[in-house]
Prior knowledge:
Shape: elongated
Largest sheet: 7 strands, parallel
CATH superfamily of the largest domain: Methylesterase CheB, C-terminal domain
Amino acid sequence: MIASAVRNPAKASRDPIKVLVVDDSALVRQIMTQLLDADPGIEVVGSAADPYIAREKIKQLNPDVLTLDVEMPRMDGLTFLRNLMRLRPMPVVMVSTLTERGAQVTLDALALGAVDFVAKPKLDVARGLGEYAEVLVEKVRQAARARVVALAPDRTAAPAVSAYRTTHRLLAIGASTGGTEAIREVLMQMPADAPATVIAQHIPGAFSAAFADRLDRHSRMTVVHVEHDQPLLAGHAYVAPGGRHLRVYRSGANWHCRLGDDAPVRQHRPSVDVLFESVAEHAGANASAALLTGMGDDGARGLLALRKAGAATVAQDEASSVVWGMPGAAVALGAAQETVPLSQIATRLLAATVREPSPA
């Protein structure tokens, strides 16, 4: 559970963002330094080959953002991150591999308080990281403005709301930066018989199945990685696969999932807008939706479509968001009926389900 969120005191002025690059590969350190230094708003103040060197350089250089390799010698990245977030919390962007182990460790890092991650290609690292330059720079910029999130023990009590097992209700959740942990907290508060819940989180395809598995371990609901044409059942949550759009459609008395490989929307696939717009079209007033932490504005227009269709809509507030981009954009559009802390999102979604459903 997120207990507190404190704005990072990194430069609010025009001074460049100071970055420390931590990676055991000299080639990766060199490439990442070149990519980040090429941006006039970022200055790489140093690099470190392992956490012990990084610890000393943090004291000497006082960086605003750390990029941290997951697997390193002498001390693994997770142990270092755990110590860092306990003793000197600061924005961290993880650099992870697109492997099953890389996915698990990266999700662990996000749970420990890392702001975001960028995937490191397994082969031809020089060319692959070069292709990620724009993504890397943007994630470092967002991290410098993000709130460093302190984690507290998981909450186990679910809201005292009952009688959800019905095909007439549908919940939808969208998120990006900071969303893996925000979604986990929301689902932790859901009862086992909550309405069917569809989820779009910006995440690579190699990581989304591991993300669904993690949510399933922390939720009373059954959380699954979506398959094409899968029926939506009460008591289940459905995570969109990375790299594929998720839509819902009505078939008789039930809703089903539809996966699509059509073009990214606002540079994202899955896109929250795509999911929310399909829920607005096929569920309308029988839906409730929440837009959580994330950079950019994906989901804001979809949430507005849901509100116009009669759905209950809620946005995470700025104080509890790691990055208040997506929910902030929704608030600016008038798409959210309510703006509440993350700790109240599940309660607000469930409260709307007790009203009489609209005709199918």
